[in-house]
Design brief:
383 residues; Rossmann fold; seven-stranded parallel sheet; five-stranded parallel sheet; 13 helices; 15% strand
């Protein structure tokens, strides 16, 4: 069964949350026996290495030219819903549907969904929203974060939602927003990933920490404005409270480690890491000090998937049901106070790790249920 998927961003490499989202959903479709036609819309350019990786991964890959020249803003205060749409996408998707027996059409992002208007009747149309884009700039500014990327108004977002039979929200709060805009068939599909747990017995057998031994604290993230803002708040706390740098070795990885804030002497910068699992397992504790922002914090789910202790703010866990207090710190100050508590308690870190594993398992079960309702597994077919 053939599924047509469009995305304005590439699926490779998965060094940003939105790329990881696109990749994981498409891989889940393949695992269920679907043949994926992946169309990259050209918004971010593409290296030869990226294109090769996509062609090796997806059953059929199509690449449109584009680049940053696709980005425009027709209204001085907000984007119209199709401002970033690549007009060549409509002709390409129409040609694909004439050649192949496409059984479902799947558009990533509301603002890249114009082509769904021309899909023949009877073929299910799905929009994976990734985020709420109505008034997104205002929400970011209220959190003290420089507004960037796409932002529109509710009526424009609603126009795009009407193009789909089914709308996917990445978490419950956003689902309620889309329902309020009038789309009744809205379902929640969060981030899909497999568990990479250390065993419970391995966690419990970690050697006790010596009183003068520093705790290795990891933070792996992209360099988007939300993460940069969160790292800045963390740095301010470390400067204010020297006990933090005396108790912890902070390890920053991913594109975030190449930002100006990461240059502080108390941060150890790893750059891009080839093995995220190894990085997580090398740490005594992973943190996500996220404050504000929108969407789902995929790096929180990724951290939970490795089974290591995750210390996070409440904002970092939006859409992830958890009852552990160390997953719900209200501020970065609270998170840093918790860091010092965890430094001197191996049992508390082990308890946090096990709680995170249970949280992750419950979360993934819910996501698989949603995905199975839309794309049930089918018998393997020739590709």
């Amino acid at each position: 069964m053939h599924v047509l998927v469009t995305s304005p961003i590439p699926s490779h490499p998965q060094n940003h949350g939105n790329r990881a989202r696109v990749f994981s959903v498409c891989k889940a479709l393949q695992a269920r026996g679907y043949i994926v036609h992946f169309v990259y819309g050209g918004l971010e350019g593409l290296s030869g290495e990226q294109e090769t990786a996509m062609r090796r991964t997806w059953d059929h890959t199509y690449v449109l030219p584009g680049g940053h020249e696709l980005k425009k803003k027709s209204h001085k205060k907000y984007h119209l819903i199709d401002d970033w749409y690549n007009s060549e996408l409509t002709a390409l998707t129409q040609r694909i549907m004439r050649i192949w027996d496409i059984k479902a059409c799947f558009a990533n992002y509301v603002w890249f969904s114009r082509w769904l208007e021309d899909v023949p009747a009877g073929i299910p149309k799905i929009i994976d929203t990734h985020d709420i884009f109505a008034d997104r700039d205002t929400r970011l500014k209220n959190d003290g974060i420089d507004a960037s990327w796409f932002s529109t108004i509710a009526s424009e977002e609603a126009k795009a939602l009407c193009r789909a039979d089914t709308v996917l929200a990445i978490q419950d709060i956003e689902a309620a927003h889309f329902v309020a805009l009038g789309h009744t068939d809205t379902r929640v599909l969060g981030h899909l990933t497999e568990p990479n747990f250390e065993t419970k017995s391995t966690i419990k057998k970690r050697p006790a920490r010596k009183a003068d031994e520093k705790m290795n604290v990891g933070y792996l993230a992209s360099d988007n404005p939300i993460n940069q803002h969160s790292l800045k708040l963390l740095a301010e706390e470390v400067i204010k409270n020297p006990a933090l740098s005396e108790a912890c070795n902070f390890h920053i990885a991913g594109a975030l480690s190449r930002t100006r804030t990461a240059e502080h002497s108390f941060f150890n910068n790893h750059g891009f890491v080839d093995d995220a699992q190894a990085f997580h397992h090398d740490m005594d504790l992973i943190i996500n000090p996220n404050i504000g922002g929108t969407g789902l914090k995929i790096k929180s789910i990724d951290a939970l998937s490795y089974g290591v202790p995750l210390l996070a703010t409440k904002d970092a866990m939006v859409g992830i049901e958890t009852d552990h207090p160390f997953h719900q710190c209200k501020t970065v100050t609270d998170l840093c106070e918790a860091l010092l508590q965890l430094k001197y308690s191996d049992d508390s870190r082990n308890d946090l790790a096990l709680s995170g594993q249970n949280t992750f398992t419950r979360y993934q079960t819910a996501q698989q249920t949603t995905l199975n309702s839309l794309f049930p597994a089918i018998e393997e077919q020739p590709r």
